[in-house]
Design a protein that fits this description.
The chain has five helices and no strands. The chain has one domain.
């Protein structure tokens, strides 16, 4: 299993985007929002991969200065990324 937590901690985005996503996380409803964003209902780990791909494309659009960039969609996808990451099972503690 890929370590999504380290992948997400390495994700660098403007602080305002992350704050907006964290604020919106309280209203995230998987049954309502996930299908709207990725047009399918997948288990959390697979949905997270798909959302990260979508987010990467949106980030490239943002960085290029393209007029097609939608901050609303970017925040929505980041909210879903955070929400899906919360659904992943925690890794068991390893005793040395």
């Amino acid at each position: 299993m890929t370590d999504f937590r380290s992948l997400l901690s390495d994700l660098r985005r403007p602080a305002l985007l992350i704050r907006a996503a964290r604020f919106g996380l309280a209203d995230y409803r998987r049954d309502r929002d996930l299908r709207r964003l990725i047009d399918t209902d997948l288990p959390p780990d697979r949905a997270l991969w798909r959302l990260l791909e979508v987010e990467q494309r949106i980030e490239q659009t943002r960085r290029s200065g393209d007029a097609a960039y939608s901050i609303n969609r970017h925040v929505d996808v980041l909210i879903a990324v955070l929400g899906e990451a919360r659904m992943l099972p925690r890794e068991p503690m390893r005793l040395v």
